[in-house]
Amino acid sequence: MIKTPICELIGIRHPVFQGGMAWVSDAELAAAVSNVGGLGIIAAGNAPAEYVAEQIKKAKTLTSKPFGVNIMLMSPHAGAVAELVAKESVAVVTTGAGNPSRHMKLWTSAGIKVIPVVASTGFAKLAERSGAAAVIAEGCESGGHVGETTTMALVPQVCDAVNIPVIAAGGIGDGRGVAAAFMLGAVGVQVGTRFLVAKECGIHQNYKDKIIAAKDIDTVTTGKRLGHPVRSLKTPFSREFSKKEYDGSTTGEELEALGTGALKLAAACGDLKNGCFLAGQISGMVKTEQSAKDIVEEMMREAEAILGRASTWVK
Ligand code: TUI
To answer: Is 154 near ligand 1, meaning CB less than 6 Å away?
Structure first.
């Protein structure tokens, strides 16, 4: 059994968060993870507040355990979703792709534990100053919107920069990653890609099949020119996007337009040509569809065995 301070802080059995993945992490997946003792997280993504309200209501019927909501701060609906989560007093709010400072008072006064995703020490310190309960330090191995620094380099630096608990994210796909995260100073992990193939994850089968077929070098980042690099599986879409990104005759607006709707096309329709299949670098380690329970329990069992042997080379 592995118990860390984040388990007590949130009231969870296992120090594992399921990443809030836009168009992927719904009430069903979040509740499945929370029911096994991890922290399930509903992703608001770019969806309107009404959708998020429905998902929160549904999750409350599926689990009595704590769950979280991830707010993607670049969304035009972020303000309305910020109000909604305060009204609903969800246990945990995680944020991504921006600065949550302006919402912090609203959330903390509603008793919510706010855990921003950060990609730098500067942002981690800002989050701590504005009242965050913990931070998720996400390295660029992860899927979706990414920073510049790897998990290996980022996590220890964030641990040194703040006095609140640090959760590691990016490149963690099995118990070896969990154990490594603890060695870097984290007290928990956030996992996204591995949960894409959870039985309770409702994405199109084509998406799951592509993750299972992926090798180590099958992801790529695009969109750096637009100021928000995004990691996804190599597909006809990503190749076309890269070509246009580095071809001076395509405008920023044209590039933005090319990406619009592509996440939904991947997750909901499994569109192999036009979809953008967000995924992290551990895709190559994901071999089979499993229940959320098996994923969490297997990762923690592996981590426990590895940590038990951690002093093997210490003489
Ligand atoms: O947010 C994520 N991952 C995401 S968001 C997303 S939806 C999207 N769709 C199209 C384009 C862009 C996004 C898909 N995946 N991860 C958390 C994360 N947050 N990674 C990096 C950051 C971050 C970046 C900048 C946090 C703070 C920050 O502040 C910048 C500033 O100056 O405001």
So the answer is: no
